[in-house]
Amino acid sequence: MIDLYVFPPSPRAFKVMVIANHLGIETNIRPLDLIKGEQKTPEYAALNPNMRMPTLKDGGYVLWESSAIAQYLAGKKPDSGLFPKDERARLDVTRWQFWDVAHWDPACAVFLFENVVKPVVLKSGEPDPAALAKGGENFERAAKVLDAQLTGKKFITGDTPTISDFCIAAPLNYAEMARLPLDPCREIKRWYASMRALPAWQKTLAQCALPAAAAA
Ligand SMILES: N[C@@H](CCC(=O)N[C@@H](CS)C(=O)NCC(=O)O)C(=O)O
What we know:
Blueprint: E1 2-6, H1 11-23, E2 27-31, H2 42-47, E3 55-58, E4 61-64, H3 66-75, H4 87-121, H5 129-150, H6 163-169, H7 186-196, H8 199-207
Parallel strand pairs: 1-2
Antiparallel strand pairs: 1-3, 3-4
Helix pairs in contact: 1-3, 1-6, 1-8, 4-5, 4-6, 5-7
């Protein structure tokens, strides 16, 4: 069975867990407590030299980076449509995954860190207004692009969800707590609600002990 090393409260853990659940792939969840520093043990560092999660282990095969793990899981069910076979359709999904890593994930991460991790999880201080102002500019710029892309489409690349939808929607579980500035983004809110309604999404929220009520 596939082992997934994850810190379940993290959106990057959620990304890979929800995709596995949506595809009906059974996984062995290996929780790593980042607060206790469990990612820094020599055993884990041997699997993932970044000492970050998530990491996948399938027999002797080890893979880290959540977006690559998403592709690997989708490859186990090639007919699911989550990572299309057609080259251009596949590149469209890959393009949005790169956009996630380059723009969306870092923009959301500032809000998650300043408004959730720092004051609530680490209790290490108040949110930094300068970081939030800069983060806000980056978030609005990226959110505008995503909102426009979703206009007239059910999902990011068309009528059916792909791994890019799962990856990009994952941080929105924290929209309210992290105070993501989503007010002008009607399409993002509509699309996120449809992702959240998926049975696999609800199952994963429960697995990660996140609230089941809509947050965006
Ligand atoms: N680009 C990586 C990012 C992984 C990452 O930064 N994980 C964080 C938690 S969200 C982590 O494990 N941090 C532990 C640490 O910094 O010690 C991915 O998507 O897999």
